[in-house]
Amino acid sequence: MNLLREYVRGLLAETVLAKGIEYTAFILDDSVRDALLKYAPRGWTPKAHHMTVINPSEQRQRLPSSWLDFSDDTGRMSVVAIARNDKVVTGLVDMGGLPIPMKGPAFPHVTIAVNPDGGEAVMSNYFELWDFETIESGSIQLKGYIEEVLR
Q1: Looking at residue 40, what is its pLDDT?
Q2: Where in the chain are the domains?
Q3: Which of these, 23, 32, 47, lies nearest to 77 by C-alpha position?
Q4: Whole-number Å distance between alpha carbons of 23 and 54
Q5: Which own/partner pairs from 61-65 qualify as long-range (CB within 8 Å, at least 24 positions apart)?
């Protein structure tokens, strides 16, 4: 009976409401950020900080604890293509078969940079898959960790 109680407590702890959490993201390693910022136009505001896993509008519950200590230093995920317009540059992410529980973004991506003249990171969500052009060098391997970003 105590084992069952502990199991139920564990489940409840993982489904606690996400009060105070802005969004959940895969935070990029500094070396990855540097590689992505090579695609940022001069004078634009650099981003290349994270790949959103759960959008702010979808962040009602916490991610299960098994994912909160996930880190990828093997580079299985990678940016394989770039889309750009006059407001934003973003990189399309190939998840490399990792079953990360995405909730919100239409497709996995990293906002690389925004135009300070009206560009916003959210505009990365407006691209369609056909807007992306493959990276000539092949891909940029992602390394980092999952984090709940607080408000």
Answers
A1: 98
A2: 18-150
A3: 32
A4: 6
A5: 61/15, 61/16, 61/17, 61/18, 62/14, 62/15, 62/16, 62/17, 62/18, 62/21, 62/148, 63/24, 63/101, 63/146, 63/148, 64/14, 64/101, 65/13, 65/14
Q: What span, in angstroms and rounded, lies between the C-alpha atoms of 21 and 23?
A: 6
SS3 label, residue 79: strand
Residue ranges of alpha helices (H) inside 42-142 are: 65-68
Token digits for 76? 């299985």
Ramachandran assignment for 70, one of left (phi > 0), alpha (psi -120 to 50 degrees), beta (any other): beta
Question: Looking at domain 18-150, does it have CATH number 3.40.470.10?
Answer: no
Q: What is the pLDDT of residue 76?
A: 83
Indicate the SS3 state at residue 54: strand
The predicted pLDDT at position 73 comes to 75
Instruction: Confirm if 39 and 89 have CB atoms less than 8 A apart.
Output: yes
Model confidence over 42-58: pLDDT tens digits? 999 999 999 988 765 55
Buried b (16+ CB within 10 A) or exposed e, 42-56: eebeebbbbbbbbbe
